[in-house]
Design brief:
By secondary structure, this protein is mainly α. The chain contains four helices and no strands.
């Protein structure tokens, strides 16, 4: 089997990747980041946990601004 080498500027490659469908982008990321599925699971777990903590405290996570979310997380991390 013959091999062909193409010289493509990185900027053009990045633009091509940006034009991919969301499914194709995920495939590329999975190829580049083998632990991506584990990371996605951790993010889902973290999302469920913060929402559960908010529910326990009578806080509506979806109504918080980004700054309020960061403040809440900081408070949770520094609780004794």
């Amino acid at each position: 089997m013959d091999t062909i080498t193409l010289k493509i500027p990185e900027t053009q490659l990045v633009e091509w990747l940006r034009s991919l469908s969301p499914t194709a982008k995920q495939s590329v990321l999975r190829a580049l980041i083998p632990e991506m599925d584990e990371l996605a699971q951790m993010v889902k777990y973290g999302d469920r946990r913060i929402r559960a903590i908010c529910t326990q405290r009578g806080i509506e996570w979806d109504n918080l601004s980004e700054q309020e979310r960061q403040k809440l997380i900081n408070e949770i991390l520094h609780e004794a």
